[in-house]
């Protein structure tokens, strides 16, 4: 039992009815999970406003209702009025779980691209150095030995605080988490004092109904992290760096290729051999040593620079950093799968035109004999994305294999026809193979020496969504099945 007054102590609030001098058993924000003598926080969502269900929550046992506006409830129910219930949920959750973030070093990463890979790189280095580190991100939450698939990049505030508490119980000393613009906008990270806040880069994304009204709002939401952290580590090369830092309250450290950066990369070299695409560079400034990583491209330099910039705050030896960076892998992010000694095959999550163009442009820099791109597009999503991705692949890949992604409630053939509309604006060669496993079989069977083959769009996903049902489908499994069927393992 917890005193309601105690849970509310970090908030400004008004008691509309009842008394906060009452004990509660649980904190709840989902009407389906209300229990006897619970405190219920009303949340206005995209499709449902639980203020409308306040009376039902009280009847189900909630004794305290936290709301943004007056609500009708049975007599005797305590109603507490706050300005923003999402913000209130975050601060109440902190108190409910006994402020677990204060018992951890918290690292937050925001930006359009690179959050996931950077988070895994940082965790790889810290764990390699013997520092138990939790992770919250797009792919999964990691607590000790537990790996929990993620629903959102940045979970709801209650879930974050619950995860933090479990990390503390599991012996974690640090947590690294992806902090999305939506997470910042919806106050999911409110109340957390980040020890380190990281900015990777910014480009127009997540703008539209249900997300951000404009690019300006998107940028402003990202900037909030730097009014909520002690030290900000930011990409000085990014055009929006100074705008993201507007109003910052943190110490600032910079990284990038610029001579002005506190942590600089120079002398970048691409490294290529069959089955291996990597990059090497000299890190200088606040550190001084050569770096080589088993990931391709300039964006991998940026990601690894961030990891170095963060981990130097933990006094980790250079050898540990370099060993861990060399071994760091992120599921579905330029994830190389060994299928041949003659050509390279990888899986990547690139699922829109911007990310696909970045990926294919990077891979072209390695001058492969052929660049082969296998991809599809999701159903019940923008048709414009299909046209754009078709055009990008047609322009940059030597061969495109158009296949199925998550068709949802659309016919895969109709989606492929849209992609072909974009393809046909280019001179790019393509084949269409609806079944994704057969598409993978085709590129493995027809792989040539020096080829670089990328399976784009699915990344870490291990399912295919068809007419409301998620069927198991992991490209890593499909690749192994194909290799077995071809007698190559």
Q: Treating each run of at least 4 consecutive H or I residues as one helix, how many helices?
A: 15
Low-pLDDT stretches:
none
The best one-word shape is globular
- Please state the second-level CATH architecture of the largest domain: 3-Layer(aba) Sandwich
Tally of domains: 3
Describe this structure in words.
The protein is α/β, with parallel strands linked by helices and 489 residues long. The chain has three domains: 2-96, 3-Layer(aba) Sandwich (Udp-n-acetylmuramoylalanyl-d-glutamate--2,6- Diaminopimelate Ligase, Chain: A, domain 1); 100-327, 3-Layer(aba) Sandwich (UDP-N-acetylmuramoyl-L-alanine:D-glutamate ligase), CATH 3.40.1190.10; 335-485, Protein-Tyrosine Phosphatase, Chain A. Helix content is 31%, strand content 26%. The protein is built from 15 helices and 26 strands. Strands 11-10-9-12-8-13-14-15-16-17-18 form an eleven-stranded mixed sheet, sandwiched between helices. Strands 19-20-24-21-22-23 form a six-stranded mixed sheet, with helices on both faces. Helix 4 (115-128) packs across helix 9.
Structure described in brief:
The protein is an alpha/beta fold and 489 residues long. It contains 15 helices and 26 strands. The strands form five sheets. The protein has an eleven-stranded mixed β-sheet, with helices on both faces.
């Amino acid at each position: 039992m917890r005193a309601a007054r105690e849970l509310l102590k970090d908030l400004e609030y008004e008691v509309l009815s009842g008394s906060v001098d009452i004990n509660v058993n649980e904190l709840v924000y989902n009407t389906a999970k209300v229990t006897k003598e619970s405190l219920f926080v009303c949340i206005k969502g995209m499709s449902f406003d639980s203020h409308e269900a306040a009376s039902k929550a009280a009847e189900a046992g909630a004794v305290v209702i936290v709301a943004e506006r007056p609500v009708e409830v049975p007599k005797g129910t305590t109603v507490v009025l706050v300005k923003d219930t999402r913000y209130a949920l975050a601060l109440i959750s902190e108190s409910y779980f006994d402020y677990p973030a204060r018992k951890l070093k918290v690292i937050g990463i925001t930006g359009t691209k690179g959050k996931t890979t950077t988070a895994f790189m940082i965790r790889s280095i810290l764990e390699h150095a013997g520092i138990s580190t939790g992770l919250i991100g797009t792919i999964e939450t990691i607590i000790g030995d537990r790996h929990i698939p993620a629903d959102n990049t940045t979970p709801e505030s209650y879930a974050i605080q619950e995860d933090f508490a479990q990390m503390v119980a599991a012996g974690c000393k640090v947590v690294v988490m992806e902090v999305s613009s939506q997470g910042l906008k919806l106050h999911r990270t409110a109340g957390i004092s980040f020890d380190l806040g990281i900015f990777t880069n910014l480009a127009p994304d997540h703008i539209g109904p249900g997300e951000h009204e404009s690019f300006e709002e998107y940028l402003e939401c990202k900037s909030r992290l730097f009014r909520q952290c002690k030290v900000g580590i930011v990409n000085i090369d990014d055009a929006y760096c100074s705008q993201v830092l507007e109003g910052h309250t943190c110490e600032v450290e910079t990284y990038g290729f610029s001579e002005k950066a506190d942590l600089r990369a120079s002398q970048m070299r691409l490294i290529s051999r069959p089955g291996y695409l990597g990059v090497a560079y000299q890190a200088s400034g606040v550190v001084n040593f050569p770096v080589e990583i088993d990931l391709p491209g300039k964006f991998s330099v940026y990601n690894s620079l961030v990891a170095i910039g963060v981990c130097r705050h933990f006094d980790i030896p250079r050898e540990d950093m370099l060993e861990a960076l060399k071994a760091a892998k992120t599921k579905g992010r330029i994830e190389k799968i060994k299928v041949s000694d003659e050509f390279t095959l990888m899986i990547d999550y690139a699922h829109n035109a911007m990310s696909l163009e970045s990926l294919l442009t990077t891979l072209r820099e390695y001058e492969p004999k052929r660049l082969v791109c296998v991809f599809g597009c999701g159903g019940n999503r923008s048709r414009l994305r299909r046209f754009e991705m078709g055009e990008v692949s047609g322009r940059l890949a030597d061969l495109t294999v158009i296949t199925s992604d998550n068709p949802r409630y659309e016919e895969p053939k109709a989606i492929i026809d849209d992609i072909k509309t974009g393809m046909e604006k280019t001179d790019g060669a393509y084949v269409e193979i609806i079944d994704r496993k057969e598409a993978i079989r085709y590129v493995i069977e027809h792989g040539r020496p020096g080829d670089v083959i990328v399976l784009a769009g699915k990344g870490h996903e291990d399912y295919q969504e068809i007419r409301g049902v998620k069927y198991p489908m992991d490209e890593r499994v499909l690749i192994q099945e194909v290799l077995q069927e071809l007698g190559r393992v």
